[in-house]
Design a protein that fits this description.
6 strands, 199 residues, alpha/beta, Rossmann fold
């Protein structure tokens, strides 16, 4: 099974996340893409009481495509949501063909050397990068990305256009009563409204 993981806070999950999955599936022929909402992300502030909402919204969004699966693996583990133990558990759980692929934004990838057990992580996955900056910033980062590759962080760059949707902007829009229907799947918008999230 050609497997790809997409880990994130997904607070909330939105249409750009799904477009990234769609592009990865189409261009790299993955059999399955597993969304892994981080229950207790080590690099971000989080509200643990909100974690279940993020998981539920990811599950709603995943219904948009039969090749997307949502994993609660990090909700069932105590402590912070580190990537290495998650990847190791996925290898045990699935009949993986070759290396597991790992979708990550270029902004986060630039800090990959600060991640927990990063030397181990780079031998467990091949990274699939999507652009989180404008083209000018990305050109400035190319040299650094190449240095990471030379250090053994194997990656391929998705050539999909930058999609200007962010969870931060969605939360701001909701707080300011600005419509978000074009930014998230309908089911996610209804869930946010039903549970009065991000007001």
């Amino acid at each position: 099974m050609k497997l790809c993981l997409f880990q994130g806070t997904f607070n909330p999950i939105h249409n750009a996340h799904l477009k990234i999955c769609e592009y990865a599936k189409k261009n790299y022929d993955f059999d399955k893409i597993i969304l892994i909402p981080a229950a207790r992300p080590p690099h971000k502030e989080f509200d643990e009481n909100f974690s279940l909402h993020r998981l539920n919204m990811a599950e709603i969004a995943a219904k948009e495509a039969d090749y997307i699966e949502v994993s609660d693996i990090e909700y069932n583990r105590d402590g912070l949501s580190y990537t290495v133990p998650t990847v190791e558990e996925i290898y045990e759980k699935y009949p993986v063909e070759g290396m597991i692929n790992f979708i990550i934004g270029t902004d986060a990838f630039k800090n990959i050397e600060s991640w927990y057990q990063t030397e181990k992580l780079k031998n467990l996955v091949d990274f699939v990068l999507f652009v989180r900056e404008d083209e000018q910033q990305l050109k400035q980062d190319e040299t650094y990305l190449q240095k990471l590759k030379q250090k053994g962080y194997n990656y391929k760059m998705m050539k999909m256009p930058f999609i200007d949707i962010s969870s931060t902007q969605i939360r701001k829009n909701i707080h300011n009563s600005v419509p978000i229907k074009a930014m998230v799947p309908d089911g996610v918008a209804k869930y946010i409204d039903k549970h009065d999230l991000y007001r």
